[in-house]
Design goal:
The protein is of the alpha/beta class. Helices cover about 45% and strands about 15% of the residues. Helix 2 crosses helix 3, helix 4 runs parallel beside helix 5 and helix 6 crosses helix 7. The longest helix is centred in the C-terminal third of the chain and has 15 residues.
Amino acid sequence: MNIILLGPPGAGKGTQAKILVEDRGMVQLSTGDMLRAAKTSGTEMGNKVATVMDAGQLVTDEIVIGLIAEKLDDDAAGGFIFDGFPRTLAQADALGSLLNSKGASLDYVIEMQVDDEVLVSRITARSTCGSCGEGYNDLSKPIPANGTCSKCGGTDFNRRADDNEDSLKTRLMAYYKDTSPLIGYYYAKGMLTSVDGLTEIAQVESSISKVLG
């Protein structure tokens, strides 16, 4: 089973992807993680990524599709979760063609619907453990009172530099301009299901589970 999680920055796609990885044995394909890993891999594709990123340029769709193609060749009995890709209609077409070439298909596209104002409040309150990456949020999952990470015991916590209101509004505008057309694209293909992304994490998990069966 292969799925796409759609939604603006901070909608909780990464959180739900991790749950699906743990519960269903799926593989999360996050373009950001793949690019960072490829940059230091020493492979031919990795060297291309490093050259582009070190020059401060945007990585082309061709390179991202190439990275995804490599991952699709790995064994993943539970299927793949596409997180952060596709972002545009051109990328959606390219992903569809790639899956077809691999004899695979896209089974579900899940849109995580959120309210922008609530989303801004949620994102500006989030932080991560600097040691293990465990996520926290001042509103819904605050850092433990003793100041240590509940997962690894670390005491260093970080906030993303772009997790501020101005940066977030810029990222939201980019999402609505480039990525939101995918909602209509996948709706027309009969693949789209929307869930409320602002409920508790467990409730969102339940909603997604009902979609996937």
